[in-house]
Design a protein that fits this description.
OB fold (Dihydrolipoamide Acetyltransferase, E2P), 12 helices, single chain, two-stranded antiparallel sheet, 2 domains, elongated, 317 residues, alpha+beta, binds fe (ii) ion
Length: 317
């Protein structure tokens, strides 16, 4: 990478900087003096920031391409408590830098290939042959999308390869839990963890940078109902017994626990109950870590929506 830039989290008001960022969105607007300007959102691995190009026109606006890497020269201003880039120059990054665009998106800390392989090993350790075939087959058929899909549009694990990261952490947690509670059925719990969110691959439409939007099907049905439908279809194709399909489908449909979060049924057996709590623990841990990631010791975060608007403390212990 030839161009050296400052990361978004290191910006301080008043400074003039060079940055290399992904352009995430653009909007052509009119100021009160009737002059056109462009509102932009930039992103790198450390966060996102708004920017403005003053004295803009339609040609300048249309030349900007979203989801590509740009070299930006700007002054960092403070606007309503946030940093805003007052842009002097903006230029599309060279192809050699553009090839490394993945380094600029928030991504899982573990390589997707490594995560996929370990998840696959968990699936292969399932002893019940029907559950094992269903789980391994589902992973293989979805491998390509799993490599980069986030687990959400904006909540926990909304990062590149976030879905794999979520599944892997849950499997590791499930394994530890079974050291304490020995009567848990490992096959059901592992399969439930691997399959519970898999239809997020179709609930969301994500590009290979891991940026996602909800699909029409995702909005109307959601990944629980879509998951049941998918398991049923593949299960019948593979000749899996009704009993196995029913148990796995129940785990999928009950994993959000509450009707208001999309579950029409609450868990009715132990592995389904544990799946819900393992899912919740992993989401919470992610949210706490994420909330304090850009704070200094002793500071509280902004209210976190997914934590009932609690402010999270970064303690110094
Ligand atoms: Fe879910
Ligand atoms: Fe989940």
């Amino acid at each position: 990478m030839k161009f050296e830039g400052i990361t978004i989290k290191d910006l301080t008001p008043g400074g003039v900087y060079n940055g290399i960022y992904i352009l995430r969105s653009k909007e052509l607007k009119k100021a009160s003096n009737n002059k056109e300007f462009i509102d932009l959102v930039f992103l790198d691995q450390t966060g996102s920031v708004q920017g403005k190009i003053w004295d803009a026109d339609k040609t300048k606006f249309e030349a900007l391409q979203v989801d590509l890497l740009y070299y930006v020269n700007f002054q960092a201003d403070e606007w309503k408590g946030n940093i805003q880039l007052n842009i002097n120059k903006i230029k599309l990054a060279e192809a050699s830098d553009q090839d490394e665009i993945y380094k600029f998106v928030p991504s899982s800390p573990i390589k997707p290939e490594v995560m996929y392989d370990s998840i696959f090993k968990y699936a292969e350790s399932i002893e019940n042959s029907e559950i094992k075939v269903l789980t391994t087959e589902m992973l293989q058929r979805n491998k390509e999308k799993l490599m980069y899909y986030p687990a959400a549009k904006s909540l926990h694990h909304a990062i590149r390869s976030g879905l794999l990261y979520h599944i892997l952490r849950m499997l590791q947690l499930a394994e530890k839990l079974m050291l304490v509670y020995e009567n848990v059925n490992k096959d059901l719990l592992f399969a439930g963890v691997i399959l519970h969110d898999l239809e997020k691959l179709n609930e969301l439409e994500a590009n290979n940078l891991g940026f996602a939007e909800y699909t029409k099907e995702g909005q109307l049905l959601g990944h629980l109902v879509m998951g049941v439908r998918n398991i049923d279809k593949l299960g019948r194709e593979l000749g899996i017994s009704e009993e196995v399909l029913l148990l796995i489908e129940h785990m999928i449909i009950s994993h959000h626990y509450e009707a208001e979060y999309g579950s029409p049924k609450k868990p009715m057996f132990l592995e389904a109950e544990l799946l819900h709590y393992i899912d919740l623990i992993d989401a919470r841990v992610y949210d706490y870590n994420n909330a304090v990631s850009n704070l200094n010791t002793g500071e509280f975060s902004e209210p976190i929506w997914s934590l009932d608007k609690r402010r999270v403390l970064k303690h110094g212990i």
